[in-house]
């Protein structure tokens, strides 16, 4: 197994795949620590999708999933601003980071802001859907939207969003949508 410190450019894809698999297993603290170590490696400006951005998105997302969203809100805002002027590859990273931000806002009980963020991400996803696959990210953002709607007391809308997207969802997002249905009832 390649460690972060010895990863070459050709092995970063494997490293990120391993970190994403660890995230799906719920090993958020390990993912965050390893992703933060990767983000500290020297940057190479000629890369189309610098790994430090992907590592930072993974690290902040892991922190949000681990329940520390309020702690990383400022970091997410800075990361989103940094990714703003970049091409399509990094635009997807920015949208993922904005999804993490929506989840963090919802976790901080700032539901109206979370709803606004989720709707803005969905709007932007609809604009790029013809250029890149966005279905999985779209379902994740819709899950964050359902959570925000529940927090706002708009349970019927949350239920409609959750029920409508449940057939498209894959684990663990499908489990979260089932929980949203219970919460919205």
Keywords:
mainly alpha, disordered N terminus, 185 residues, 9 helices
User: Oligomeric status of the shown chains?
Assistant: single chain
Radius of gyration: 16 Å
Approximate shape: globular
Biggest sheet layout: none
Helix- and strand-based class? mainly alpha
Q: Would you count the extended β strands for me?
A: 0
Roughly what percent helix? over 70%
Alpha plus pi helix count: 9
**Helix/strand order:** HHHHHHHHH
Distance between the termini: 46 Å
> If you average the pLDDT, what whole number results?
88
Which stretches are low in confidence, meaning pLDDT under 50 for 5 or more residues running? 1-7
Strand content: under 5%
What would your notes on this structure say?
- By secondary structure, this protein is an all-alpha fold.
- 72% of the residues lie in helices and 0% in strands.
- It has helices at 12-24, 28-39, 51-65, 69-83, 88-107, 111-128, 135-151, 155-165, 173-184.
- α4 packs antiparallel against α5 (88-107), α5 (88-107) runs antiparallel to α6 and α6 runs antiparallel to α7 (135-151).
- The longest helix is centred in the middle third of the chain and has 20 residues, at 88-107.
- It is globular, with a radius of gyration of 16 Å.
Structure summary:
With 185 residues, the protein is mainly α. The protein has helices spanning 12-24, 28-39, 51-65, 69-83, 88-107, 111-128, 135-151, 155-165, 173-184. Residues 1-7 have low confidence and may be disordered.
